[in-house]
Amino acid sequence: MTLYEAVFAALAGGSPSARVYPEILPQRVILPALTFTLITGEDDFHLLGPSGLIVRYVQVDSWAGTRLSADSQIEAARLAMLASLHFQVNAISVAGADPFETDTERFRSSREFTLWLQQA
Q: How does residue 2 score in pLDDT terms, banded at 50, 70 and 90?
């Protein structure tokens, strides 16, 4: 399973109609919706060489018409990432401000996740 498939599966919760998108939110999407972006990643090593694990840093953004909806959705996304069977979430950092996007009139809530996966 690719990283995209694993993250999508976690965030969509098995629903094919879930509004989860890689990187860019479509212009006329029905809210609330989620986007996710791979920030960076690296292979893991120990003293004997490669450990067989890879670490990836993923940002998840919740987009909604109200602050409460954006915050509720990002919390649901956090819980889904923690419950995923495809990777382990070892660290979660909370982003700074969750702004109102004046140009799109949407509220956004963002979180960054550190994911550990078995190397394929």
A: confident
